[in-house]
Specification:
Shape: elongated
Largest sheet: 6 strands, antiparallel
Strand order of the largest sheet: 3-4-5-6-10-7
Oligomer: single chain
């Protein structure tokens, strides 16, 4: 029996209505899925951005563009910052500066971030931070022909120590017999400035560059860990941003630890510039 015109029209109307419902349902499902993914993502980014800002000022601007830069750099970080830097067969000298270090009695602090890269606990009282500053300045005074203090090249602020090639040093007489030959440092750091260490006011930790075996000793004895980007090639940044032996040294927890940290800084000066820094002042 042939369908009447009204039946055909009703059939087409039903199909149209079904397609509209199907389209609205798909839109509704897509919107629900987008909301279920987008809202948690927004909450995560907000918390992560706040955590980035809470670390304080560092080598990266404390704004959202700086946060996006750090988020990209996370793709290239070390798997384990407690793994010592590789020692190659061509390393010269083969042995480091440090003969031994005592075991750090405290457990490792919690560490977060890339730039800034900071401790989130075990922050010492203000007087220990001041004692550490005094110890660093004493190295400058004990080695006035070799060292200068200034703002960090890595961090753009904060106390840093720099090895100076003659005739940059403030004294007329230079210890040329202690300096290696050549136009650059033995193991250049930030833009070949000769920066050997810098101190973070927010947590009293330091960053410095060490011989692979010295870095391994510092890590194994609990005094520090490698920076997350140490020795890591970064796509779009022209290779490695930081040397293999770029290490965070944890903040002192007691006055007796200042001397150990000072000795580690001397090891950094030896590795970066090939010099043996005197340390006669207290601290």
């Amino acid at each position: 029996m042939a369908a009447s015109g009204s039946d055909v029209a009703f059939l087409h109307l039903g199909k149209l209505f079904s397609s509209l419902i199907s389209l609205d349902l798909r839109r509704l499902l897509f919107s629900a899925l987008a909301i279920s993914v987008f809202l948690p993502l927004c909450r995560f980014v907000r918390r992560d951005y706040e955590d980035f800002l809470a670390l304080g000022p560092g080598g990266t601007p404390s704004n959202f563009l700086g946060y996006l830069r750090i988020s990209y750099l996370r793709l290239f970080t070390l798997t384990d910052p407690l793994t010592p830097p590789p020692a190659t067969q061509t390393e010269r000298p083969e042995k480091g500066f440090l003969q031994q270090l005592p075991k750090r009695p405290q457990p490792r602090p919690s560490v977060a971030g890339i730039a800034p890269h900071r401790q989130t606990n075990q922050k010492p009282p203000a007087h220990l931070y001041q004692l550490l500053r005094i110890a660093l300045y004493s190295l400058v005074s004990d080695n006035s022909k070799l060292l200068l203090s200034g703002n960090s090249c890595f961090e753009k602020h904060g106390l840093a120590l720099f090895l100076c090639l003659c005739p940059q040093c403030p004294d007329a007489e230079c210890h040329t017999e202690l300096l290696h030959s050549g136009p650059t440092y033995v193991n250049p750091t930030c833009k070949n400035t000769g920066e050997i260490c810098h101190l973070h006011p927010s947590d009293s930790s330091m960053h410095l560059t060490l011989h692979p075996s010295d870095a391994a000793l510092v890590i194994s004895q609990g005094w520090g860990e490698r920076h997350p980007l140490a020795g890591c090639p970064v796509l779009g940044f022209g290779g490695r941003l930081l040397p293999d032996g770029f290490v965070m040294v944890y903040a002192p927890q007691e006055e007796s630890q200042i001397g150990v940290l000072k000795e580690i800084v001397r090891a950094a000066g030896w590795w970066v510039g090939g010099v043996c820094l005197n340390s006669t002042s207290e601290g």
